[in-house]
Write a structure and sequence with these properties.
7-stranded mixed sheet, single chain, two-stranded antiparallel ribbon, 6 helices, alpha/beta
Length: 177
């Protein structure tokens, strides 16, 4: 079965975090779907860059996914946190032991959903208290079971490589670095 990754785009997402992941995954032939959680396929990033996604949230079932990815950024992270559909996808992926990845402020969404209980995680400095139930780490990328978290914009390439190492291979990840 081919891996399929859903990357969720909310108004005010961090462009580097979202697009670096999409770019890197597509370079190694991972089916990567950019999903707008709004009502329009075009989503504006935190720095005013509009991105045209592959579709809106209600157009996908997510059952065929291997991984869900949450980019950070503000107010994008707050929109992800408030979206009940995203929460349900995360909970179903956790139940199925599928991969869940979040970067920057977005690991706070995982904390709020109860997915970090007893795990190690990292996030953008200052958001540690929102990693509910987790042991906050200062590493650039933290992998704990099926949960992958990263600090932010400056760690986006390392984050993308960590996703590739889990979905494809360590070698494929290293070839991109």
């Amino acid at each position: 079965m081919k891996n399929k990754v859903y990357v969720f785009f909310a108004e005010g997402f961090e462009e580097i975090e979202a697009l670096t992941v999409v770019d890197m995954l597509r370079r190694v032939d991972v089916d990567t779907v950019m999903v707008s959680i709004g009502n329009d396929k075009t989503v504006n990033g935190a720095h005013g860059i509009p991105v045209v996604t592959d579709g809106i949230f209600t157009e996908f079932s997510y059952k065929d996914g291997t991984m869900a990815v949450l980019p950070g950024g503000m107010p994008g992270t707050n929109h992800l946190l408030a979206h009940e559909g995203v929460r349900q996808v995360l909970l179903s992926y956790q139940e199925a032991k599928k991969y869940i990845a979040a970067i920057c402020a977005a690991p706070s969404v995982l904390g709020a959903a109860g997915l970090l209980e007893g795990r190690h995680a990292t996030c953008y400095p200052g958001f540690e208290e929102k990693l509910l139930g987790a042991k906050a780490m200062s590493d650039a990328v933290v992998i704990d079971g099926n949960i992958i978290t990263s600090k932010g914009m400056g760690t986006a390439i390392s984050f993308g490589a960590a996703l590739i190492s889990r979905l494809v291979s360590e070698e494929a990840a290293e070839e991109l670095l």
